[in-house]
Amino acid sequence: MLTSPLDRVRNVARKAAVRERLTALAGAARAVDAGRRLVALEVAMFPLRPVVLVASRATRRGPGPIWRSLTQPFGGQERLYRLRDGGRSILIRQGTPDIFSIYEMIESREYAPPPEAAAAVAALGHAPRVLDLGANIGLFGLYALSQWPDGQITSIEADPDNMRVLDSNVSANSDADWTATCAFASDREGEVAFASGHFAVSRGATDGGARANSVVPALDAFDLLANCDFAKIDIEGGEWPILADPRLADAPARVIALEFHPWGAPGEDAGSHAAQLLGAAGYETAVAFRNDDGTGIIWGWRPSP
């Protein structure tokens, strides 16, 4: 049967997406204590994915609440696991992008610092005060605790669905010095129109590219940055007003790990603009990686005095 070039492109893209999901699933299964159960539940949830996506488009709601409604009669989609590295507890939503988050954060260690950033943290002489802006369900907090068990973790997450799971993960690891607040990290206090229910890619609807379905409180990120040594920032395009704010030059954070995004960026090359803005604030920088969609991770660290 002959297929058009467009059909072939779609077929390749579909196969690539399947391979990517299988890779993430295998990695997430290796990261937790009950990997076989995790895989079995992911497979069981798979037939619901197209139903959720169709319902989300039809109702113009984020898929998160729809997932929860569909799975509630069967005991829900949330399951508690224990991470093999460090033994800490992690609650996830099966069938959702939480699997990719476990793979990226715990198995692939996408936020493992480069040597210069690691040296800047070590030079503190104490466990860092870690600020996590855009915490999702708390996987970076758990990663940070595996590296610095005595560290102080402050997590900020704007999406109420993500926040509910984040709160559960903070409670499940109550021995840690870990707090969480539901708010949007901004360059000013107030309220922000927000596209919630989209798991790790929920974001502020300030750039015209996301459809708002809620309003969430906003905190001035610089009030939070004033009390941290290490800041991880992944706020889906909300980073640009913070990076452009002249107060960043006075922020005491020795290290910043930033996920940059093209939406809201001041130009086409988001990574280069992130490097320029961090450099203007006194940080030396290194791009860890870039993705084909224009996103990526860049590290910034202040030179030793």
Ordered list of secondary-structure elements with their pairings:
Layout: H1 5-31, H2 35-45, H3 49-59, H4 63-71, E1 78-82, E2 89-93, H5 98-107, H6 115-122, E3 129-133, H7 139-147, E4 152-157, H8 160-172, E5 177-182, E6 184-186, E7 190-195, E8 203-204, E9 214-220, H9 221-225, E10 230-233, H10 239-244, E11 255-260, H11 270-280, E12 284-290, E13 296-301
Parallel strand pairs: 3-4, 3-10, 4-5, 6-9, 10-11
Antiparallel strand pairs: 1-2, 7-8, 7-9, 11-13, 12-13
Helix pairs in contact: 1-2, 1-5, 3-4
Outline the structure in words.
It is a single chain. By secondary structure, the protein is of the alpha/beta class. The chain folds into two domains: 5-95, no CATH class; 110-301, Vaccinia Virus protein VP39 (Rossmann fold), CATH 3.40.50. Helix content is 39%, strand content 22%. It has eleven helices and 13 strands. It has helices at 5-31, 35-45, 49-59, 63-71, 98-107, 115-122, 139-147, 160-172, 221-225, 239-244, 270-280; strands spanning 78-82, 89-93, 129-133, 152-157, 177-182, 184-186, 190-195, 203-204, 214-220, 230-233, 255-260, 284-290, 296-301. The strands form three sheets. It has a seven-stranded mixed beta sheet with strand order 5-4-3-10-11-13-12, with helices on both faces. A hairpin with a 6-residue loop joins β1 (78-82) and β2 (89-93). The longest helix has 27 residues, at 5-31. The protein is globular and about 55 Å long. The termini are far apart. The model is unreliable at 1-10 and 12-16 (pLDDT under 50).
